[in-house]
Structures are given as structure tokens and as C-alpha cells.
């Protein structure tokens, strides 16, 4: 096992020494001219063609001058696919569009899989319904609070307050005879 490690280490060491022998500039810039030559890059990736005003009406032909241009693409009207006839004779039934029909540049927002717009109720009517719900809920709570009777029973009293049974002195004891009336804190404070 050890000889294999030594052989591997010596091979790596000799490869690193060979790489060190190359001049620094050749190590850093050894890129073929097919990738690095400016003439070949211009040939592979030419500039965007400039369109005339007839080909590109009311738009700037240079994309760098105005990044909002679309290069002469004529957008269809921005109609959400949700509002198209679901029973129409569409080539693509799910997306509700025909074959070859141009797609709006905001097609991802206007497509059938974008957020659904709830148009079945107006904002005013929705606020009215929420207000009616809140008023009904508060009204029911108030009526229940007014009509609900007090506790029908009175707390029991135990001799000595069950001090020994509940854990001895210092433990929270039960109500003993002579304790103040429950829920009458003001009277206890006045007596003290």
C-alpha cells in the first residue's frame, strides 16, 4: 500500500514541477484564437441589426439606447387568458390559444397559470360583507355576555381549608370558613 502512495505522490510532484517550468504568461493566457480572437468573436456574435422607422415604428432601433424596446414585435392586446371563452374552439384548450397566434411579451403574467383574478364581487360589496360579519360576531358575543347567567353554584368551604391534605403549611389551601367572599377583593382591602 505504501509503495503505491509513494508512486502516486512522485507522479503528482513531477507534474507540478513541469507546470512550474512554463513561463507565467503562457500559463495564464494559453487560450486558442478561436475563443480569444476579437475578429472571430465579431463574426460569431454580430451586432443587433438596426431597423428603419418603417420596420420598427415608434421605437428606438438601438436596444442599448432604450432597453424597453421589443425589436419591432407587435404585441397582441393584453388580455388575460382567464377571461377568454373557455368553451371556444382553441387549438390549445388548456392555455386557450390558437396555433401560430402571437404571444404578448407579458405572456407569463397573462397566461392561464398566473394568479387568478376574482371578479365575482366588487371591493365595496366585499367590505360590506366583512363589516356585516364583524358586526354579527360582536353582536352575538355581546348578547351571550348579557344573557349568560352567573355561576349557579357557590364555592364550597372546608374546615381548615384542607391545609394538611393539600401539602401542609405554605401550600395553596382551599376556602375555609371565615374567608372573605369570593370575587369581593375591594371588601378585603378595606378591612385590612
Summed up, what is this model?
The chain is an all-alpha fold and 192 residues long.
Total count of helical runs of at least 4 residues: 7
Strand/helix succession = HHHHHHH
Question: How far is it from the N-terminal to the C-terminal residue, by CA?
Answer: 92 Å
Q: Helix/strand-derived class?
A: mainly alpha
Task: Calculate the mean pLDDT score and round it.
Answer: 75
Overall geometry: elongated
Strand content: under 5%
Major β-sheet profile: none
- The residue fraction in helices comes out at 25-40%
Describe the structure.
This protein is an all-alpha fold and 192 residues long. The chain is built from seven helices and no strands. The chain has helices at 2-21, 24-28, 33-36, 38-44, 107-110, 123-147, 185-191. The mean pLDDT is 75.
List the helices and strands and how they pair.
Layout: H1 2-21, H2 24-28, H3 33-36, H4 38-44, H5 107-110, H6 123-147, H7 185-191
Main features:
single chain, 7 helices, 192 residues, 0% strand, mainly alpha, elongated
Amino acid at each position: 500500500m505504501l509503495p503505491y502512495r509513494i508512486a502516486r505522490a512522485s507522479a503528482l510532484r513531477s507534474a507540478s514541477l513541469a507546470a512550474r517550468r512554463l513561463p507565467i504568461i503562457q500559463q495564464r493566457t494559453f487560450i486558442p484564437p478561436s475563443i480569444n480572437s476579437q475578429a472571430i468573436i465579431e463574426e460569431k456574435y454580430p451586432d443587433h441589426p438596426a431597423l428603419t422607422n418603417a420596420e420598427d415604428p415608434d421605437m428606438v432601433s438601438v436596444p442599448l439606447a432604450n432597453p424597453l424596446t421589443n425589436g419591432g414585435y407587435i404585441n397582441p392586446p393584453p388580455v388575460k387568458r382567464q377571461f377568454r371563452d373557455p368553451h371556444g374552439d382553441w387549438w390549445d384548450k388548456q392555455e386557450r390559444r390558437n396555433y401560430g397566434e402571437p404571444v404578448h411579451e407579458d405572456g407569463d403574467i397573462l397566461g392561464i397559470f398566473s394568479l387568478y383574478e376574482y371578479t365575482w364581487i366588487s371591493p365595496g360589496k366585499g367590505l360590506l360583507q366583512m363589516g356585516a360579519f364583524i358586526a354579527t360576531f360582536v353582536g352575538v358575543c355581546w348578547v351571550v355576555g348579557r344573557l349568560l347567567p352567573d355561576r349557579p353554584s357557590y364555592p364550597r368551604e372546608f374546615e381548615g381549608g384542607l391545609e394538611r391534605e393539600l401539602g401542609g403549611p405554605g401550600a395553596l389551601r382551599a376556602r375555609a370558613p371565615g374567608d372573605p367572599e369570593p370575587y369581593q377583593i375591594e371588601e378585603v382591602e378595606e378591612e385590612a
